[in-house]
Here is the input.
Amino acid sequence: MTDPKPVTPPESCGDSGCGTRREFLGAATAAMAAALTGCGTLSKEEFLQHNFRELSKQEVLDVIARLEKEYKAKYGKDVKVANTPAIPGVIFGYALDLSRCIGCRRCVHACVKENNQSRDPEVQWIRVLQMDKEEGVNLQHADQYYNPEEVPQEGHFYMPVQCQQCKKPPCTKVCPVGATWREKDGIVVVDYNWCIGCRYCMAACPYGARHFNWGEPNLPADQVNPNTHYLGNRPRPKGVVEKCTFCVQRTRNGQYPACVEICPTGSRKFGNLLDKDSEIRYVLENKRVFKFKEDLNTQPNFFYFYGV
Amino acid sequence: MKRPARSAGPTPIHPPSCGAVPRKDIPMRFPTLSMLVAGLLMLLGSAAFAEPPTAKPPAGTRVENPGAPEGIEVPKPPFSEGIFPCTSCHDGKSMKPNLKRRELTDMHTDIVLNHGPASRWCLDCHDANSRDNLHLASGEKVPFTASYLLCGQCHGDKLRDWRVGVHGKRTGHWNGEKQYLLCVHCHNPHSPRFKPLKPLAPPAHPEEIQARKGGAR
Here is the structure.
């Protein structure tokens, strides 16, 4: 209304300028936002959302309500996003029996289903390494692409590797924006809405446990696991890093992680390190236990042991 | 290097129901000695109650396994279809028990016994007089739902680990109710070696990943 000049159609624009000043500024702001966020579909609320740890209780509820609405629109079904906090007096520990694992990869695929990983491009949080018995735990002789008719193969043993939930995690130390941190129960988590996708954490992790969504995650709607956690298995956007969370959506409700539930050989043991009667404590006190890459002083809460 | 078992070690050797068995054998001529031993057993028994490995069954755990002395709840043993109860054929009337060690030719020929020394045979574990039960080396009968006691006679270390939830699979809750499996759910008792499996699909090899239109991959 303040500008009396009639709007000229864009075709008739010269090189000197186009449209009104208001239109130009609007377009410039939109372009700026798109350039800054790397994507043009962000809502204003999402764009202005703070780090998860800085949100008030009400803000968390608002964020969760917004996410649930978005997921409902995208997948056509109700996806519950929880924000269950750590249970006081609990530090999670995990132990994997190398003498029992047969490398069947049931855990890998159960994890993909439970944690809503992208099917294609493929993201998998567990890598099962086939190792040479002659060589022992030697990554020079590890193969993750083995695919024989039957496992275990003669002369080999199998070592699944996933996030070791370190007490001194190098990945959280290098994050320039504080989008990843160690929770009170020992789980290292990522705020996918705060992650800028720089992948420093992936470079820092000595276990290859972090995975980047290079493409738009492809998660078929009928395969979405609707029981999710904000810091865990809720569907992720493109351009963020994700990792194993010991199935935070299950374990904070007392359940075993999906990989423990599926393992046909019972090689995977899980529990509270602070409970002296737990399975995990029995393993640590009575079995031969080692930590993977112990010399790096990452101090994992994930242990490997020999059950026999 | 194996570290010594924890202090709850005696628990597996003296489950409450077995306590009576060794006591019977103590000669009554030495009342003081027998009392001492009985007292020791009771002490051990109480220790077992005070510090049971997994046995702190959380409140609300259902005990649906009356045969299991420790009240460990297990699913139904994996019988071949229609084979249980054994007494539907072995009723002791139409078929008299034949205790002679032999190769079976009429029935159960599908069972290949590949477990322990060659001299082992059916009635080492199955009970000839009470067909729906198994029996320990001592002659004590155990139901099929408590077959782990039988396995534990030779594989005591495995039984000890199984009780605390370290050998074998546990499902359910890490801080609450857990589901156990019997030894025989994973190990066929007649041929116990764990059967190999077909591995699920391997991860995509980087060379096989096709670049997509629009940049990433």
